[in-house]
Specification:
By secondary structure, the protein is an alpha+beta fold. Helices cover about 40% and strands about 20% of the residues. The protein is built from 11 helices and 14 strands. The strands form 2 sheets. Strands 1-2-3-4-5-6-7-8 form an 8-stranded antiparallel sheet. Strands 9-10-11-12-13-14 form a 6-stranded antiparallel sheet, with helices on both faces. Strand 11 and strand 12 form a beta hairpin. Helix 2 crosses helix 3 and helix 10 runs antiparallel to helix 11. The radius of gyration is 35 Å and the shape is elongated.
């Protein structure tokens, strides 16, 4: 009986050995699977890197730069690529604006993206902006875009000096109050060639020219030509509808009454480097007498002056008098001493664009001029 059990034990022992071997064989593929997953993770990381490279390439295209023939679709001119690819996706337009003052510590790419965001937001919204004389204003009265072409005396002169004849410039600005006083982007078509100039707080940070289908220079030289283009844009910004400083009063004579009022409103709301203000209040003998004659007692006048109107002394004319008289507000508009608009408190804001210049209003205007001290 014991002899018969021995073969049985051997059979059981062999079965255990076979089962163990099979179990080991089933576990062996786990190692290659793990390695395969690691390799897949590495490939995924490389894929993300490639995606980032492609994104950077698309951003470079947005500058109008086409440096590689392979990146140009067959049959499409390179200048068309530059124009088409400048527009960013809708989500970029919705990004929150960042003041230029915060740009000093950020990278070149971040500055360029900041400018692109402003450009795309303006292009996307300009249909709803108030337009006057080639200027586009936001609902808050901020100048977001200005267009200039042949006929601007300062630009005409600088173009002629540099051998150009025809031009069209689009100036883009930070679209909020207290933004950069300089344009952040200028899109220029000069003698049928396209140029793009980028600025940050007045500093020239990128030039994209038509050479080679889109030459990009991130260390451009600020020469007198570029500086003039930038400064003319600054005059538009600082004076809203104001043309360049060298523009003559004769050119402004073509402005309608509505244009003049809109200009004064824009300067009053947005200020400017050539705008000044003084305040007159109770205690001025001449004004005290005029108020008393007209049945008033308490008053405060804010007199606004624009050095670009008149002969340029700054005190030639008060372009706007904002008056508080016995607790009520009045606005008196003047353009080259012409009384062009009155807004009074009657009915919540009665406006008269053909007001009568009486002795009372004349006295207020004359005292603002007489007390101008700058």
């Amino acid at each position: 009986m014991k002899k018969k059990q021995k073969p049985l034990r051997q059979a059981i022992f062999l079965s255990l050995i076979l089962l163990t071997a099979c179990a080991n064989k089933e576990k062996q593929p786990e190692t290659p699977i793990t390695v395969s997953r690691i390799e897949e993770t590495g490939e995924e990381g490389e894929g993300k890197k490639e995606e980032r490279k492609e994104e950077r390439a698309r951003e470079d295209m947005a500058d109008g730069s086409v440096t590689d023939k392979e990146s140009q679709p067959a049959g499409q001119p390179k200048t068309q690529i530059a124009a088409a690819d400048f527009s960013r996706p809708p989500e970029v337009m919705a990004q929150e604006a960042v003041p230029a003052a915060a740009m000093a510590s950020v990278s070149q790419d971040e500055k360029i993206q900041h400018i692109r965001n402003i450009y795309n937001r303006t292009v996307g919204n300009q249909g709803s902006y108030r337009q006057s004389g080639g200027c586009y204003y936001t609902a808050e009265g901020v100048l977001a875009k200005a267009v200039a072409s042949n006929g601007n005396t300062t630009l005409d002169e600088t173009m002629h000096k540099n051998g150009y004849t025809t031009y069209s410039l689009e100036y883009y600005y930070e679209d909020w109050a207290d933004g950069d006083r300089y344009p952040v982007f200028i899109y220029a078509v000069i003698d049928k060639k396209e140029y793009r100039y980028y600025f940050c707080e007045g500093e020239f940070i990128r030039r994209v020219g038509p050479e080679g289908g889109g030459n990009t220079n991130d260390s451009p030289e600020m020469n007198t030509f570029i500086q003039t283009l930038r400064d003319v844009g600054a005059y538009y910004r600082n004076g809203a509808m104001a043309p360049a400083a060298a523009e003559t009063a004769a050119a402004r004579a073509d402005w309608s009454r509505a244009d003049k009022i809109a200009y004064i409103d824009s300067v009053y709301n947005g200020g400017g480097s050539h705008t000044q203000k003084i305040v007159l209040s109770t205690g001025n003998p001449v004004l005290d007498e005029a108020m008393k004659k007209n049945g008033y007692s308490d008053y405060l006048l804010e007199c606004y002056y624009d050095e670009s109107i008149g002969t340029g002394s700054g005190c030639d004319t008060a372009m706007l008098i904002h008056a508080w008289i016995d607790g009520k507000q009045y606005w008196y508009y003047f353009y080259n001493d012409e009384y062009i608009c009155r807004i009074g408190p009657e009915g919540g804001g009665n406006r008269n664009d053909t007001p009568q210049l009486n002795s009372f209003i004349q006295t207020l205007h004359d005292e603002c001029a007489r007390n101008c001290y700058f």
